[in-house]
Amino acid sequence: MKTTRIKINNHLDNLQQDLMKQLYTMEEKENSIICQLLSSIEKNEKDIAECQRNITNIKQHATDLQDNICDTSDVKNTVTCRNLQGAIQSTFQNESILKNPRGIDVDSDGNVYVVGKISNNVVVISPDGKRYREVLTARDCLSNPTSLHYSGPKNQLLVTNLYNKAHLFNLI
């Protein structure tokens, strides 16, 4: 009986050791899977952060105009306004007046203010995109302007230059 008990205990000990080995192996395998998932999550977080930066960049170059969204293309030298369904309402392109359009803003009448980085100017474009007027130039201390903000109540434009100071202009 004693020998049988010893055999049974040894067998149970061996079973326990085998089960513990299997548990450790499974734990290592699951830890590996968890590490892979965490790595994937970190990559997704980086992708999300990049998307957020891209959205912020798009917002810098696009503005909401009542039921339209206007944006600039510095590659095509265009200013395009679309309705909320995405249909183009107007497109302005005149490289002799506006090169490398960047910052954009809109007044309460729907006029679109745009800086031309290479043309060193600010152009105001009518809501239909058919008329324009150059309101500021390099003579007004613009040097590679990149962004602007129109303040309607004060009728002022704040224009930032790439390498030097920003300027506040009173519009007449």
Describe the protein in words.
InterPro entries: 6-blade_b-propeller_TolB-like, SBBP_repeat. Residues 12-68 form a coiled coil. The chain has 172 residues and is an alpha+beta fold. It has two domains: 1-61; 66-170, Neuraminidase (6 Propeller), CATH 2.120.10. It has one helix and eleven strands, in the order αβββββββββββ. The protein has one helix spanning 2-61; strands spanning 62-65, 68-73, 78-83, 88-92, 101-106, 112-116, 121-125, 132-136, 145-151, 156-161, 167-170. The strands form three sheets. A four-stranded antiparallel β-sheet has the order 1-2-3-4. A four-stranded antiparallel β-sheet has the order 5-6-7-8, with no helix packed on it. A three-stranded antiparallel β-sheet has the order 9-10-11, with no helix packed on it. The longest helix is centred in the N-terminal third of the chain and has 60 residues, at 2-61.
Helix content: 25-40%
Biggest sheet descriptor: 4 strands, antiparallel
How many alpha or pi helices?
1
Q: Order of strands in the sheet with the most strands? A: 1-2-3-4
In terms of structural class, how would the helical and strand content be classed? alpha+beta
Mean pLDDT: 88
- Count every beta strand, where a strand is a DSSP E run of 2 or more residues: 11
Strand content: 25-35%
Rg (CA only): 32 Å
CATH superfamily of the largest domain: TolB, C-terminal domain
| Gap from first CA to last CA | 111 Å
Supply the CATH architecture of the largest domain.
6 Propeller
How is the CATH topology of the largest domain named? Answer: Neuraminidase
Ranges where pLDDT stays below 50 over 5 or more residues in a row are none
* Count of folded domains: 2
InterPro entries: 6-blade_b-propeller_TolB-like (IPR011042), SBBP_repeat (IPR010620)
Organism: Mytilus coruscus
Pfam family, one: SBBP
Coiled coil: 12-68
